[in-house]
Amino acid sequence: MSATPVLNVFAARAALAGTRTVLAADWLEVWTPGQWREYSGPLVGRVANLLQALAIRLSPLATGHSRRTQDGILGSGLPAGRFLRSPGLVPEMDQVTPRLGVAAEPGPVLFVGRHIQDKRVETIPPALALARRDQPGLRAVIGGSGPETDAVKRAARAAGVEDAVSFPGFVAEDELARMMGEASCLLNPSRREGYGLVVVEAAAHGTPSIVTAHPANASTELIAEGVNGFVAASASPEDLAEAIGRVHAGGEALRRSTRAWYEDAIRTRTIARTAQGILDALEKRRR
Fold first, then answer.
1. Domain segments of the chain: what residues?
2. Which long-range CB contacts under 8 A does 171-179 form with residues at least 24 apart?
3. What is the second-level CATH architecture of the domain 7-89+269-286?
4. What SS3 state is found at 44?
5. Burial of 234: CB neighbours in 10 Å, binned 0-12, 13-18, 19+
6. Cα dist. 215→13, 48, 56 in Å?
7. CA dist 270 to 2, 46, 62, 225, 277, Å?
8. pLDDT of res. 104
């Protein structure tokens, strides 16, 4: 069962009381007390944090997919023997034909996802403006939409790159695949990711990713620096533009190493391996 929201754990434990059913609670994220306070306020945030800690302790078997989640779960008091960290959540994208060459005109910087505060999408236009000083033809495609879309468009106007940024909204899978393949890089300045699957999806196309360093951003664990992308020191325009420049300097070699990273990941970090590991752990507990 999914432990998001945490009330699922209490409901499942109550429903299974008196049975011999073995329960595994899958935690995609574990928030810090500070995150709960910021999201829900001082009072509700404190209650939510306490409920999260109690739900973790009530998980007969807890599973997670990042080092950050592991630290949060074990730090909440769950014995190490009741936690299983999976190898990953990598899907096998058999239909993808990677684009490993680099065109004379650089492909666009790409963002895909919801436009919410945690994603910090509004940082992309000023970063693009700085990056265009060295790559004048560089463009950005900001896919998706959300409550921050208008703020992102205002940021593009303020940075003077309104004509160099397109907003296609949410698109069909085949169109998304085309966008992924044509992009020079995926730029995801998010401060909070429970895993960061979009990094893997981009890598399948040979497209390197740029993510940002932040304690709540587990997608940094998917980046092998200089192999499949870069971790920018912050979401400042200067740091993001510097990372974009490193991507373009990496050229075709970086695209090839990005695809090689993905080919290794589909052997070692797949959803199938994770599922089998959970089944094996459940079987051991059943005995």
1. 7-89+269-286, 109-268
2. 171/143, 176/112, 176/143, 177/95, 177/96, 177/205, 179/110, 179/112, 179/141, 179/143
3. 3-Layer(aba) Sandwich (3.40)
4. helix
5. middle
6. 31, 20, 20
7. 18, 36, 19, 21, 11
8. 65
Residue 240 contacts residue 187 (beta carbons within 8 Å): yes
CA triplet 165, 124, 235: central angle to 5 degrees? 175
Tokens standing for residue 201: 């999806």
Rounded distance between C-alpha atoms, residue 208 and residue 229, angstroms = 5
CATH topology of domain 109-268: Rossmann fold (3.40.50)
**How high is the pLDDT of residue 91?**
82
What Å distances lie between residue 172 and 143, 162, 180, CA to CA?
Answer: 11, 24, 12
Closest CA to 78 of 66, 103, 60, 51: 60
Question: How much is the average pLDDT of 225-249?
Answer: 97
pLDDT digits (tens, 9 = 90+) for 20-48: 898 999 999 999 999 999 999 999 999 99
Instruction: Please enumerate, as own/partner, the contacts of 79-87 that have beta carbons within 8 Å and a separation of 24 or more.
Output: 84/24, 84/277, 84/278, 84/281, 86/273, 86/274, 86/277, 86/278, 87/268, 87/269, 87/270, 87/273, 87/274, 87/277
Residue 20 host element (H or E): none
CA distances from 140 to 14, 128, 143, 206, 244 (A): 50, 7, 10, 18, 11
- Report d(CA 55, CA 33) in Å as an integer: 15
Contact status, residue 56 vs residue 77, Cβ threshold 8 Å: yes
pLDDT one-digit tens code per residue, 144-166: 999 999 999 999 999 999 999 99
Tokens of 74: 């074990």
Residues 6+ apart with CB under 8 A from 75: none
Tell me which H or E stretch contains 91: none
